[in-house]
Amino acid sequence: MNQSQIQVPTLTKVNKYILIIMGVLFLLSNVLKASVGVGLVGHLGLSPMMFFSGHIYEIVTYPLIANGIFDILFNGLLLWFIGSELENQWGVKRYISFLLTSTIGSGLIYLLFSSLFLSGNGLFSYPLYGMHGAGAALCLAYAILNPHRIFTFMLIFPMKAKYFCMIMIGMLLFNGFFTPAKVLAWGHLGAMAFGYGWMFVISSDTWKKRLSKQSFTKKKPRSKAKLKIVKNDDDHDDDEKPPKYWQ
């Protein structure tokens, strides 16, 4: 088997639930938009104006809402091919922790740069939505763990995962400095930065020692079984008669 090629993993539990939720919300949003003219992007997407008005729940709901079918397909493939392999490698709890860290980190950076560059602008109410930031963090994590696996850039050019990730970071930096979509680009870079920070903390020696110390100091449950010898009250020698009973 060629270890440099990306394998097709089974769709794991967490990613399956995420895709189901994204699909249901996407259909519901389109039904509402067709019937009453209002979708869910404006309510579940991360809008700086809405967030600072008290809608703080948007920082965890925005990746679950998509505005187009290609968002569902692209992010679904990322979750299936890359997310499933990382979930199998890390386990459910760590994988969810990574997704939450990168998602919230992306949202915080987006809110920060929106406040710096879009305050007082009509775009200040523009919502961030979709799994693009978390997807970028997943690509970074995969490239760190499997730098020599082959990705297909633009579905045409095969290249190693580490080079694919470098090109993606370079494109985001260019967009962040020189295009009108700089706030979105910095949000995706924030997801990658927070995801990398999560991996650094988890892999650090201090964290490993803390986890191993907790595992060794965990108290074992005491046994409830008790054994006691009750001797006879007779004056005969103890060697001649066994104990009267066991309790």
TrEMBL record:
GO terms for cellular component: membrane. It is found in: Membrane. It comes from the Bacteria. Residues 230-247 have a biased composition (Basic and acidic residues). GO terms for molecular function: serine-type endopeptidase activity. Residues 217-229 have a biased composition (Basic residues). Residues 54-203 form the Peptidase S54 rhomboid domain. It is a multi-pass membrane protein. Signal peptide: none annotated. One of its GO terms (biological process) is retrograde vesicle-mediated transport, Golgi to endoplasmic reticulum. Keywords: Membrane, Transmembrane, Transmembrane helix. The chain crosses the membrane at residues 17-44, 64-83, 95-118, 124-145, 161-178, 184-203. Residues 217-247 are annotated as: Disordered. InterPro entries: Peptidase_S54_rhomboid_dom, Rhomboid-like_sf, TMEM115/Pdh1/Rbl19. This is Peptidase S54 rhomboid domain-containing protein. It comes from Halobacteriovorax marinus.
